[in-house]
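User: Sequence recovery, please. Input:
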């Protein structure tokens, strides 16, 4: 405990902690949330552009459009790992993230200038490289500020922002339909111009507002700064930005941890189910409505998903649990995959589409919380683990983009996603058994058993603090 807190009572420290968390929430969460909305809008606006004529204007086939969707991840996925290794070693992660926002906004706006399918592929691949900084970087950044009991709801806030970005993106795209032909510019071109320029402007403002790490943040008083550092240090043994563990050593430690390999496979299966977002306007359009109406109908499922995410992570934080949430979401998603394959009834199909966004993506929230709590130290290992899970898991978005053919029932897509869900449930159940075995070894007090856990990725300092694998 720092000297500035030693003379304070437990009640005074709790009050100071409440004020600190409130302050962090009021400053950091709105900035990260807004940037993630922009991130998702700029990534998913091609799905809306499909309904605004981009396929016709660029003479694209359905297969070529799927490639244009998936090629973003060719740049997005491999660059997440070096980016997160960089962010774990620099003192200004906030500025680093905001610079990436400005760059991807510029690239997104330039999509309006493409004239051929090849040019679209090139711009999308470069956009993926720029956007690779944000999501794993934001998760790592939040885990540097929040304790394990606080992190879940903050990750949920990110996903809520994602869903509101999806909802707003659909509504915004529907409005831009009316600009078609203005100044000789097609509606889909206006979509990229307006959304890309908005991203550049907002990213520039956030660069001056976004704090850095707790130990060097200018938004905190000296006492608050020491408390913010101590909160994290007391849980996992070292404060953010204070360890000297080498970047590549942390990377190698992450790869040698079998728990990470299991979590990567789980996220691979989970992200395959999340690929539904790339084609959600198309799925809704299969109900038989016009392009504008289809875009408007995409908003309610995303708004509902945002609210459910908050409930799921509130429950996860309150009960310190993850496994029941994952299994519950998987079971729900399986039922919803069956409905559009089994019936053409519009009401039943739209009901399934109301549920699928949160049921298919919900497990990812607790997976990212698991990664940042179970692979906490050293920080370079956690940064690498977060990027590896998102990067390798995200490859599902490449192959899953080719599943959405043969409307309106999309047998290949929904059948494959159901298979992924079942395999995900089996794998996460094995992970539950594995970490519970490690906890039994830690609780045994036997030096030989504890040595096996340390070899599996837990540090000696974490053992001395009484650390355990929680939530499973």
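Assistant: Recovered sequence (472 residues):
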């Amino acid at each position: 405990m720092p000297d500035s807190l030693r003379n304070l009572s437990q009640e005074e420290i709790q009050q100071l902690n409440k004020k600190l968390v409130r302050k962090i929430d009021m400053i950091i969460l709105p900035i990260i949330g807004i940037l993630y909305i922009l991130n998702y809008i700029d990534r998913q606006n091609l799905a809306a552009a499909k309904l605004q004529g981009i396929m016709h204007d660029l003479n694209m086939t359905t297969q070529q459009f799927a490639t244009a969707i998936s090629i973003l991840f060719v740049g997005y996925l491999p660059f997440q790992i070096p980016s997160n290794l960089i962010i774990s070693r620099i003192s200004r992660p906030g500025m680093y993230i905001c610079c990436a926002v400005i760059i991807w906004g510029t690239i997104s706006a330039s999509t309006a200038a493409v004239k051929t399918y090849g040019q679209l592929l090139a711009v999308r691949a470069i956009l993926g490289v720029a956007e690779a900084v944000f999501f794993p970087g934001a998760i790592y950044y939040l885990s540097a500020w929040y304790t394990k009991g606080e992190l879940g709801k903050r990750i949920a806030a990110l996903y809520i922002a994602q869903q509101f970005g999806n909802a707003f993106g659909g509504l915004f795209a529907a409005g831009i339909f009316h600009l078609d032909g203005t100044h000789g510019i097609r509606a889909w071109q206006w979509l990229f111009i307006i959304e890309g320029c908005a991203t550049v402007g907002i990213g520039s403002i956030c660069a001056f507002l976004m704090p850095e790490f707790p130990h060097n943040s200018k938004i905190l008083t000296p006492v608050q700064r020491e408390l913010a550092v101590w909160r994290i240090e007391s849980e996992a043994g070292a404060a953010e930005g204070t360890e000297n563990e080498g970047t590549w050593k942390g990377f190698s430690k992450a790869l040698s941890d079998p728990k990470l390999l299991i979590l990567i496979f789980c996220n691979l299966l989970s992200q395959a189910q999340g690929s539904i977002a790339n084609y959600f306007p198309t799925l809704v359009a299969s109900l038989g409505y016009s392009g504008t109406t289809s875009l408007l109908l995409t908003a309610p499922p995303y708004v509902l998903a945002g609210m459910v995410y908050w409930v799921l992570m509130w429950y996860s934080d309150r009960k310190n649990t993850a496994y029941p949430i994952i299994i519950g979401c998987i079971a729900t998603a399986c039922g919803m995959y069956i409905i559009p394959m089994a019936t053409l009834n519009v009401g039943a199909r739209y009901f399934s589409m109301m549920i699928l966004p949160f049921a298919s993506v919900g497990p990812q929230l607790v997976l990212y919380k698991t990664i940042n709590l179970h692979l906490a130290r050293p920080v370079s290992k956690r940064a690498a683990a977060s990027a590896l899970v998102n990067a390798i898991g995200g490859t599902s978005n490449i192959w899953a983009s080719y599943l959405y053919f043969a409307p309106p029932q999309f047998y290949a897509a929904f059948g494959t996603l159901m298979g992924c869900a079942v395999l995900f449930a089996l794998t996460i159940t094995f992970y539950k058994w594995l970490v519970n075995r490690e906890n039994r070894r830690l609780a045994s007090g036997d030096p030989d058993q504890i040595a096996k856990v340390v070899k599996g990725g837990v540090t000696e300092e974490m053992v001395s603090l009484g650390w355990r694998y929680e939530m499973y």
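The chain has a mean pLDDT of 85.
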